[in-house]
């Protein structure tokens, strides 16, 4: 960590470059940060509310309060997996902590999340009239928890992808399945009724608890996450973070040679 802090100026430069390059030569530029989730919100609203007849009060707010946080997960993991291979020429030229590349992608995706959450908060204020003070206090903690979880995952996948390039394609497929298994578009109450005793297995997915907290803050949420599930999510996120970082440190020693 001390070594990474020594390169904080480089980290700032890489994050700024990532944000600038991502929307370069596009007509809407940074507005795509908001346009992409809005477009998906319209599509999922049509499919699940009009066609599938999902009955949830203020469904658009319910949807966007889960969709935008999951898009943070999607962007961080899919782009973070390729963070080392896409910077191979730079890695082979000079030395600096290799962790900077996965961290750069995660932080730049976090910036997009924070911008998008302004939209969610404004819409929540319009629909509900207010956001609970407790929710405002919890919001930074759930963002931190999600970031810790994502960093651990990105550390692992980005390193493996150097040795096996198939990983980035597998991750793109898995992330779609993860979205449908995280109750982004449908209510947890329905899952609980359908699965019965197997509902606990569904909750082993840490994104379920994380998205439930987001929804509790902005939508009101149909369920409040239990202390046990929050504790489990914190534990699994910390485990993946430290295990992922240790794995990265061990495997990244030969990254330059492999590339």
Report on this structure.
- With 259 residues, this protein is mainly α.
- The chain has one domain.
- Helices cover 76% and strands 0% of the residues.
- The longest helix has 31 residues.
- The two termini are 25 Å apart.
Separation, N- and C-terminal Cα atoms: 25 Å
Question: Tell me, what's the shape?
Answer: globular
What's the average pLDDT?
Answer: 83
Written as H for each helix and E for each strand, in order along the chain, the element string is HHHHHHHHHHHHH
The poorly predicted ranges are none
Please indicate the percent range of residues in DSSP E strands (runs of 2 or more): under 5%
Q: Helix proportion of residues, in percent?
A: over 70%
How many whole angstroms does the radius of gyration measure? 19 Å
Number of strands: 0
Comma- or semicolon-separated keywords:
259 residues; mainly alpha; 13 helices; globular; cell membrane; ABC2_TM_bact-type; transmembrane helix; transport; Transport permease protein
In short:
The protein has 259 residues and is mainly alpha-helical. Helices cover 76% and strands 0% of the residues.
Write the layout of secondary structure elements.
Elements: H1 2-6, H2 8-22, H3 32-51, H4 59-81, H5 88-93, H6 100-128, H7 133-163, H8 167-180, H9 188-195, H10 199-202, H11 206-218, H12 227-251, H13 255-258
Helix pairs in contact: 2-6, 3-4, 4-6, 4-7, 4-8, 4-11, 6-7, 7-11, 7-12, 11-12
